[in-house]
Amino acid sequence: MGTETGWTPIHLKRNTVGGVIGNVLEWYDFAVYGFFAPIIGAQFFPTEDKLSALIAAFGVFAAGYMMRPLGGVIFGQIGDRVGRKRALQLSVLMMAIPTTLVGLLPTYASIGIWASIGLVALRLIQGVSVGGELIGSISFITEIAPATMRGLYGSWTLFSAVGGIMIGSLLATVMHATLDPARWRKIRSWRPCDNIGGRSSTSPRWSSCRVAASTCCSCGGQPI
Fold this sequence. Notes:
Elements: H1 9-35, H2 37-44, H3 50-66, H4 68-82, H5 84-104, H6 108-111, H7 113-144, H8 150-178, H9 181-184, H10 191-201, H11 204-214
């Protein structure tokens, strides 16, 4: 039996779960950088003053946040024109690729200033992506939810965003507690955490589930 929006309960559940998973992965990818900022700052913004390197690293983190409104505008337009599903797919891909590249990016010692420039560019792209994912996910889930439960369904988007940040924090805490200080400060200690998100975001299992559910129905005759 379908809801007033035309979605059956099973499709509604699958799409909600897909939106939650997408948000968790996106915000994990975006936030994990901040938890490793002291290491990243030393590797990409070398200076005799460690505080200056840390400030530079957090400055890049802040720049990514500043791009979020732009991402909301861009992907909001994409969602209105070609459908929420396509906008969400693009935003996830736009996060997964830069996240993977950040994990593979050579350091300042290898390629000089281009390492710093590359890191800034990739973080800006991530900022656009996470802004578009959040807005698109909120719109998508609230539009398909029953009229009397849109607030509840919409709340899962922010819940999952915070969940992704908490997972990144937990992983960084575990690594900090289990690795000795010398090994913790090595460059490779943060790269696996960054690459986990990039690979998970393109996982065929959750992506195919989300896309398949999204193509089952339409809402009000408009593409979802």
